[in-house]
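Milestone M4 deliverable, item 7.
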Amino acid sequence: MEFSHFGALTAFICYLSATLAVVFRLFHPKGPHIVSVLTLGCIAIIAHTLNTAHYLFNQEVINFSLPNVVSLVSLIITLTVTSLALRFKVNLLIPVTYAFAGLWQLIMGFMPQGSVAPIISGDLSVLTHITFALIAYCVLVIATLFAFQVAYINMKLKSKNIAAVSHLPPLMQVENQLFIILFIGTACLFLSQLTGFIFLENFISKENAHKTVLSLLSLVCYSFILWGHFKQGWRGHKVLMMTISATSLLTLAYFGSRFVKEFLL
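Output delivered:
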């Protein structure tokens, strides 16, 4: 068995086991056994990291093809959620992030690695822009997951279903965390756009215009959400819908054209 196949299967099995360990005990009186969940998650993350490094750095350049970028993004998100789980109750976030990461690792392990999108590691300006862009996307996806959690807790509290949220954090705590994460992600997105305008000559060229426009639109949307919350008191379902819309725009900006180029053309 090749290294990539073994790593993919290991990550998939451990991510899946951790996901099921949370789902099956989500409404248990004592909740999920978090030590077991995080142990499995850490094993999966180690395999995920080795697998991602194998695909990114197995050539003279950094291969930033779409599958590799998705693998890297899912790794950063799962690592962040796992770290948050050490201190906070994120039982609703773990199954979503682990399940996606596990399925993608399984796909990566058996997907033909044909496409190559090289990044020159010595170009500091490009790496700075890409780093801010990756951090922004990962943080804003996590913010979207927190928005779902806020909406779920709020819905259950309104329906007087206290048992459904007994092992989840207080609504106000999650909501405060949501807007802190959203602010950090929006700031990183702003810096990624700023570094792109300053350092990249082709940032507003015809071939990158759609990416730039969609990224700027998503930046406006995230900024509007923050303004609406702090100035108008927006929260709950409205914030969730607007966050989903902004994250969808950002996903199209980052991955839409690359999917067409690498898989459809």
